[in-house]
Amino acid sequence: KLQSPQFQALFTPGLRSVAEMFEKKNYELRIAGGAVRDLLSGVTPQDVDFATTATPAEMKEMFTAAGVRLINNKGERHGTITARLHEQNFEITTLRIDIITDGRHAEVEFTTDWHKDAERRDLTVNSMFLGLDGMLYDFFNGYEDLKNKKIRFVGKASERIQEDYLRILRYFRFYGRIAEDAGDHEANTLQAIKENAKGLAGISGERIWVELKKMLLGSHVSHLVRLMYELDVAQYVGLPLDGDLEEFDRVTKHIQKLSPKPMTVLTALFKMKDDVTNLDLRLKISKEEKNLGLFLVKHRRELTKASGPEPLRPYQDFIMDSREANTISKICELLKYQGEEHLLQELQQWTVPVFPVSGHDLRKLGVSSGKDIGAALQQLRDEWKKSGYHMDKEELLSCLKKL
Question: Where is the tRNA nucleotidyltransferase/poly(A) polymerase RNA and SrmB- binding domain (predicted)?
Fold first, then answer.
């Protein structure tokens, strides 16, 4: 039985009320999936999903009778009801069996059999349930696997994958999150992935990108991306056919501890701009992500630190010359990519200086034509830049007289 502080902390007034309602009606209610895995690892879960023997109709009736607010009905077809109590949402799903699966969607039938529900889940570490009394229900040795840091599919790997091909990427993601060593895979699992990789071609780009991003921020990322190439997965998820694996190895060695954006990590695979465009065509990445990828491919080689006392200057000059809003955040990602940890810290503490002279100042000095004002301001900006942005208004205006 689990009685950890993380588990005890889940018992908010909201959960106590929910538990009471289910108990009164003799419906079983347990914590399911990822939250169980987190709790067993001593981690506070980000969100908690619940599973129950009650059908959606029974839950709706029970909650409505108690005056509990129900929100968004989208999950109802799959058996999920979301109730809101005490400012907290509770997502509760009826136990189910997959009747028909096509590798993307499943048609489900409700059941009261906990073993059957566990059987249709992807990985053993995600197939456990936890009673509200702390009792663990584990049908596929998920807890053993978690303790031994093993990632395995529930039952036959090929069957689980064919139910939803996205599970290939979920395997990689959880491997990066839980496994201790890079090469600790079961041969038949890798074989099943290779034989079914093509199924990923039918999965939407958005779903793939969600999994890929999480994987890129986990451990063993270099090993896992190599594996994606070896097992023919890469081509179906928008990665370039001839990704630059050496560069990827080099960049991922130091970048994990700098909290990079997923796109920053992934760009190390890209040799040219087209690789970013093709990724976008397949995965429908956000505009911001696409722009970051293009920026890094363009500047990673030539925008580098200066030798001498001011290594950060080239980056600062770039920011000062740029007319774009989010240049600083792009430069931070570039420094992470380049592994420049100290310069990154320095840049994050730097305040962008404000150019101290305005057109108004020049008019006061008798410069009247707009064209002359524009030219003079540009000359003064150049002088200001040469001074390392240190010259103040007085110095710049006296400089103007010389010019």
Answer: 186-237
Least confident of 50-64, 68-82, 133-147, 214-228: 68-82
Query: Could you give the C-alpha distances from 5 to 10, 39, 136, 318, 385, in angstroms and in order?
Result: 9, 9, 16, 50, 56
pLDDT band for position 267 (cuts 50, 70, 90): very high
User: Of 111, 127, 148, which closes a domain?
Assistant: 148
- CA-closest candidate to residue 60, choices 44, 74, 81: 81
Query: Which domain range does residue 68 map to?
Result: 1-148
The string of pLDDT tens digits covering residues 66-125 is 999 998 767 777 789 999 999 999 999 999 988 777 777 777 889 999 999 999 999 999
Number of domains in the chain: 2
Tokens for 341, please give them.
Answer: 């940890």
The answer to the question of residue 247 being in a domain is no
- Token readout for 210 is 């969600």
Structure tokens at 334: 């570039």
The sign one gets for the Cα dihedral 315, 317, 321, 323 is: positive
For 183-195, the pLDDT digits (tens) are 889 999 999 999 9
End of a domain among 125, 148, 171?
Answer: 148
Query: Binning pLDDT at 50, 70 and 90, where does residue 378 land?
Result: confident
Provide the CA 216 distance to its chain's centre, in angstroms: 8
Q: What 8-state DSSP symbol labels residue 309? A: S
Q: How far apart are CA 335 and CA 344, in angstroms?
A: 6
Tell me the whole-structure pTM to 2 decimals: 0.87
Q: What backbone torsions phi and psi does residue 203 show, to the nearest 5 degrees?
A: -90, 140
